[in-house]
Amino acid sequence: xxVKVMLFxxxxxxxxxxxxxxxxxxxxxxxxxxPYFVLQDEGPNFNKLPDLRSVVHTYTERPKDDSNDTSLFDxxxxxxxxxxxxxxxxxxxxxxxxxxxxxxxxLGVSSLLGSLQHHDVVPWSDxxxxxxxxxxxxxxxxxxxxxxxxxxxxPYGLQDRLYLNEMSLDQSSPFVEINYYAIHIPNFxxxxxxxxxxxxxxxxxxxxxxxxxxxxxxxxxxPINFLxxxxxxxxxTCTFHSFRSQYMxxxxxxxxxxxxxxxxxxxxxxxxxxxxGEYLEQCDEYLVYPNGxxxxxxxxxxxxNEVKSLLYTAxxxxxxxxx
Length: 323
Hints:
3-stranded antiparallel beta sheet; alpha+beta; 7 helices; 7-stranded mixed beta sheet; membrane; Lipopolysaccharide cholinephosphotransferase; Beta Polymerase, domain 2; 2 domains
């Protein structure tokens, strides 16, 4: 094919894709009756969502320093490192609200697993990952250079990494990993390292807020369906994947081996008496200690089939959902 013809065809495709993106993107024109839905130009509504600032997360002792001298499935992040990651993500979110792109970025695979399993960063993880729209990558990177003046952006292949400026860019420095996704009509494609995976758009959009530490963060509408496409497993497994050691192969264990070490989220249907007229299905998620006691309960938006799913959690036999 002639080069000019090929470039012309690519230009037409780009124009059509852009028009579709702005006119028919499933999170662009949806009526949003619930504070759980993510709006393009607003952050989470703390007056209407459950307050996470006082939620108990005393499920693990963090390392006292940044030496990372820990076993694979020990807690990895020191308190300072954890707070730094939270700071980076807060700044990124504020910037995305200013760009009116808040409803187009969301928790990445590892962080989404953390939200589903622990309501936080996976205890043995050493970083945070997110997805952002490749269509706006240039605008995002420019805005980071303008608004997030105390962050350092480090390009890493098809990804970008965000560090706090005061941190040295070595293997002990935690970072937020930005992976970029692209929408392909009529499917949703995510490109990681040049590899594409495809999902149903309505498994991802419209985005909803999920608990992640002390904050509500954007996440796929059907997080378990989303992860099943990416992590097709038939039984519950827990995976160690190091953000700082990209070439280290993932190590997989049965989550039951970690249940005496860390609490896991148990999902329960909300009591029948509390079901209201909203069309959104909801779930009470309990962070449960090994002794069967719950550290906290957070109400989330989750389809009933996902509430019942045994994937991406570890259920304690000593804990029973309230009737």
